[in-house]
């Protein structure tokens, strides 16, 4: 991002409109009859107005000592370091000229930065009212009577009055600087904001174009792959299942009980093979192009009830109790409903599989207890959770981190008691993470397990990420 | 941050971030009331006709701490959704963040979204909330409910940043939030620039100097500094 106006060092001449500022200074000088100079921080003259001091100063410049002392004073008022920390007394500094005249200086401070200085003078302080001692000492070089005559043309005033005028003038300059700085920032930031928004949109457009090209290529590959797999694997399997059903229905004649039992086993294993192929297809899709989400506003109640219905037959066989508890705090969420349902079904199927007959499986839905780490300290208010708890066989602690790996089985021995390919939780993990969520497990061997899905209620960044 | 060793001048940029209408400008206004007039600059507000911040508000504070001249530049960002690019610009070169959260239960999601938005905008500026000193202020504490209390307790328990409660319209909690952040920020800078060693200025003294810029301290606070 380019450096903003907010970082830029201010320059007095860029902030003030010089012709109008000069006019303001002129009205001041006309009113108070005191000379006025304004310099910026680099020592560049912004305004220089003299009142009645020209003749006197020119006379002082005629003598060599006068010239030297005069130059000293002029240099001093222009470059003398001024206190750049704001003080209650307004930071006014004083310089007495050798001639008895006096100058007052005040820094132009803005946001703690020194932008320049204002110089009032020369004036003849009322409390002195005569030529200065240093000038008197130069009698011979100057005609003191002439000097007195010329100096008397210069404004005579008490220093306190000049101080007040000066403070007043400094305030006006402050307001002018502030007002123009404000106007400058407004216009400049307008341009910066528009430029920044343009840059952002441009960047996003490029990403979208790249993504589209990639997707088109993947889509082509995916189509080929899916066509092959569904044809090569599913077609023969459909025949196996179909003919088994026809035989069982007695379409090819009566069967004895033993033949029926064999056929039922063929049918059951055929269907489980079909499910396995479908899972592999799901995973292949995820790996080929990531998870494609179709987010819609869905009711959590609908998702949970539909998932519970799909595992009802198996749970009845094992005489398991299924309960659900939905918090009214989160009722609808913007997610891919089909994928969320499949996640819950996969968790429930596992619970049914690993919970002994007579066990209890519970589904709890509500606001998230803990949001993912990346969600920041306000995270939990943006997330909901679905927890599936059972009192089944549980998972040993050292195996818990591995359960989400593809093809992982807690018991991988050939003689294992429970079936399955180890794909369910891996799919759950992919789907949940695609939503910007996470899945965690808490379990104790022999006592049961709780799998918790935590997902954002709305996709992250909705509403404020885009301009 | 700018640290001019030659001139012994330290400039710090503190940004007040948070959802729209959470009270960022109100915080700055309340602080403005509390700073000694000769130490504060103009409170510049760039807002729309309906008092919504258009670009930002800014309040400069200039004071001396030991041998050091310190300029604190306080900024707010515009809270409205559409001003994201301006928020990103204002965050440029930030040295510390005061996140002003809204205690109203209906604004819980907003707080969360703006935090993420901030993290993202910091990232675009090459900054990270992990390393940037930050505090959270739960403003409008009178409008919170039991769930707010829980959320605040939870945040305190996580302990990632100091958490304050405030009612900025009444000026309550504003100074505490500000001084808390100043404390944290000095600690961080000190680590890099070793100001304590170089200038003999430690963290506690620095915070005390900032506290001295403020007027109308409650009596117990004054007693504490004597």
The structure class of chain A reads: alpha+beta
Query: Main sheet of chain B, how many strands, which sense, barrel?
Result: 8 strands, mixed
Provide the gyration radius of chain A in Å.
Answer: 44 Å
Number of helices of chain A: 11
Low-confidence stretches of chain B: 219-226
Instruction: Spell out the helices and strands of chain B N to C.
Output: EEHEEEHEHEHEHHHH
Report the average pLDDT across residues of chain A.
87
Report the structural category of chain B: alpha/beta
**Measured distance between first and last alpha carbons of chain A:** 16 Å
| Multimer state | heterodimer
Give a written overview of the molecule.
The complex is a heterodimer of chains A (467) and B (226). In chain A, the strands form three sheets. In chain A, strands 1, 2, 3, 4, 5 and 6 form a six-stranded mixed sheet that branches. Chain A is built from eleven helices and 13 strands. With 467 residues, chain A is an alpha+beta fold. With 226 residues, chain B is of the alpha/beta class. Chain B has helices spanning 24-34, 84-91, 108-124, 146-158, 174-193, 195-199, 203-212, 219-225, and strands at 2-4, 9-17, 44-47, 53-65, 68-76, 96-102, 134-139, 163-165. In chain B, strands 1, 2, 3, 4, 5, 6, 7 and 8 form an eight-stranded mixed sheet that branches. In chain B, 49% of the residues are buried. Mean pLDDT of chain B is 89; it is low at 219-226. Chains A and B meet through helix 7 of A and strand 4, strand 5, helix 2, helix 3 and helix 4 of B.
């Amino acid at each position: 991002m380019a450096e903003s106006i907010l970082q830029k060092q201010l320059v007095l001449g860029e902030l003030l409109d010089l012709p109008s500022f000069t006019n303001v200074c002129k009205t001041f000088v006309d009113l108070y009859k005191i000379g006025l100079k304004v310099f910026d921080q680099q020592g560049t003259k912004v305004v220089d107005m003299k009142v009645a001091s020209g003749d006197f100063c020119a006379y002082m410049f005629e003598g060599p000592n006068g010239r030297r002392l005069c130059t000293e004073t002029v240099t001093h008022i222009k470059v003398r370091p001024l206190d750049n920390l704001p003080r209650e007394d307004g930071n006014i500094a004083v310089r007495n000229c050798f001639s008895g005249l006096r100058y007052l200086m005040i820094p132009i401070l803005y946001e703690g930065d020194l932008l320049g200085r204002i110089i009032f003078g020369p004036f003849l302080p009322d409390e002195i009212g005569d030529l200065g001692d240093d000038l008197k000492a130069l009698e011979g070089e100057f005609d003191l009577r002439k000097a007195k005559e010329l100096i008397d043309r210069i404004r005579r005033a008490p220093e306190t009055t000049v101080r007040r005028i000066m403070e007043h003038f400094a305030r006006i300059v402050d307001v002018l600087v502030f007002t123009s700085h404000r106007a400058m920032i407004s216009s400049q930031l307008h341009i910066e904001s528009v430029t920044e928004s343009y840059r952002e949109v441009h960047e996003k457009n490029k990403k979208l174009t790249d993504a589209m090209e990639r997707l088109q290529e993947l889509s082509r590959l995916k189509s080929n792959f899916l066509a092959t797999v569904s044809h090569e694997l599913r077609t023969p399997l459909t025949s196996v299942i179909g003919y088994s059903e026809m035989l069982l229905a007695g379409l090819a004649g009566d069967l004895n009980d033993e033949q029926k039992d064999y056929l039922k086993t063929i049918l059951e294993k055929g269907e489980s093979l079909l499910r396995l192929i479908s899972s592999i297809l799901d995973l292949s899709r995820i790996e080929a192009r990531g998870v494609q989400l179709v987010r819609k506003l869905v009711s959590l109640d609908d998702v949970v009830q539909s998932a519970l219905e799909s595992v009802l037959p198996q749970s009845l066989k094992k005489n398991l109790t299924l309960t659900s508890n939905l918090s009214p705090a989160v009722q609808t969420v913007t997610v891919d409903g089909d994928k969320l349902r499949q996640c819950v079904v996969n968790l429930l199927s596992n619970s049914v599989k690993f919970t002994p007959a007579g066990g209890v499986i519970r589904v709890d839905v509500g606001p998230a207890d803990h949001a993912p780490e990346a969600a920041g300290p306000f995270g939990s208010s943006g997330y909901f959770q679905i927890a599936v708890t059972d009192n089944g066989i549980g998972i040993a602690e050292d195996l818990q981190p591995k359960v989400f790996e593809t093809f992982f089985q807690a018991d991988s021995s050939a003689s294992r008691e429970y079936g399955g390919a180890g794909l369910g939780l891996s799919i759950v993990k992919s789907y949940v993470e695609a939503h910007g969520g996470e899945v965690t497990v808490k379990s104790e061997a022999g006592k049961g397990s709780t799998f918790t899905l935590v997902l954002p209620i709305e996709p992250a960044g909705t509403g404020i990420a885009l301009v | 941050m700018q640290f001019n060793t030659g001139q012994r001048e330290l400039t710090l940029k503190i940004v007040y971030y948070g959802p729209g209408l959470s009270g960022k400008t109100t915080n700055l206004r309340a602080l403005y009331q509390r700073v000694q007039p000769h130490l504060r600059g103009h409170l510049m507000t760039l807002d729309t006709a309906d008092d919504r911040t258009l670009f930002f508000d800014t309040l400069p504070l200039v004071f001396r701490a030991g041998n050091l001249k310190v300029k604190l530049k306080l900024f707010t960002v515009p809270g409205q959704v559409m001003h994201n690019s301006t928020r990103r610009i204002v965050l440029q070169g930030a040295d510390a963040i005061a996140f002003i959260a809204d205690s109203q239960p209906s604004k819980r999601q907003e707080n969360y979204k703006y935090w993420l938005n901030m993290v993202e905008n910091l990232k675009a500026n090459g900054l990270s909330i992990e390393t940037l000193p930050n505090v959270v202020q739960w403003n409008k504490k009178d409008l919170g409910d039991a769930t707010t209390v829980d959320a605040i307790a939870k945040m305190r328990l996580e302990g990632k940043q100091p958490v304050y409660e405030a009612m900025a319209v009444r000026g309550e909690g504003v100074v505490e939030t500000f001084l808390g952040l100043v404390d944290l920020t000095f600690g961080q800078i000190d680590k890099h620039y070793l100001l304590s060693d170089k200038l003999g200025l430690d963290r506690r003294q620095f915070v005390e100097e900032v506290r001295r810029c403020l007027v109308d301290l409650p009596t117990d606070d004054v007693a504490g500094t004597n």
